[in-house]
Amino acid sequence: MAINRKKYQNAILYLCQNLKGEVRGKKKLAKLLYFADFDFYEKTQKSITGDTYKALPMGPFPASLPDVTTDMTSKKMLSIEPTDEWNGFNPTEIYKCLVDPNVNIFSKDEIEILDRVIVKYGHLTGKQLEDLSHAEAPYIGTQPSKTIPYELALYRGTDFATV
């Protein structure tokens, strides 16, 4: 599966824009992308971003996320601002969209899944999303630090009729 950089960038912008202009935390952004890609794969056997996900200790992590977000900041599409939210913890990275997403790049089904992820998971913290992802077949069925096969999404049993 090859990365679709334009969809990847616009998915990040779309998530940020629809979550009051920002996503608080790299973990949260990573999990929202995971749920978008794996929900979409479960429904259509395709990924939105085309990225691969690793089964890391804090849950699924998109391999190309650091490269894509760095590229977006250099192009003034996204800002990443560290903030000390919790004493004794690493700073939280706040992702803010600086441009509007190009929604025309997405199919109707892709927008539906992105909207579903925003409604279902957007209000949760990175830790809550980590816990949810740890309970899913794709993460459970993958050795630590290995690539999570998209096919494991088919064992999730998501009810797409509900949000």
Characterization of the model:
This protein has helices at residues 5-18, 26-44, 65-74, 108-121, 126-134, 137-140; strands at residues 22-24, 53-56, 59-62, 78-83, 92-97. The chain contains 6 helices and 5 strands; from the N terminus they run αβαββαββααα. Helix 2 packs across helix 4 and helix 2 (26-44) crosses helix 5 (126-134). The chain is of the alpha+beta class. A 3-stranded antiparallel beta sheet has the order 1-5-4. The protein has a two-stranded antiparallel ribbon with strand order 2-3. Strand 2 and strand 3 (59-62) form a beta hairpin. The protein has a single domain (5-155), classed as Arc Repressor Mutant, subunit A (Orthogonal Bundle).
A few lines on this structure:
The protein is of the alpha+beta class and 163 residues long. The protein is globular.
Secondary structure elements and pairings:
Layout: H1 5-18, E1 22-24, H2 26-44, E2 53-56, E3 59-62, H3 65-74, E4 78-83, E5 92-97, H4 108-121, H5 126-134, H6 137-140
Antiparallel strand pairs: 1-5, 2-3, 4-5
Strand content: 5-15%
Question: What's the architecture, going by CATH?
Answer: Orthogonal Bundle
CATH fold name, please? Answer: Arc Repressor Mutant, subunit A
- Which percent bin holds the helix content? 40-55%
Going across the biggest sheet, name each strand in turn: 1-5-4
Category from helices, strands and their pairing: alpha+beta
Spans of at least 5 consecutive residues with low confidence:
none
Overall 3D shape: globular
Supply the number of structural domains: 1
Separation of the first and last Cα atoms: 28 Å
Write down the secondary-structure element order. HEHEEHEEHHH
Based on the structure, what is the oligomeric state of the protein chains?
Answer: single chain
Radius of gyration: 15 Å
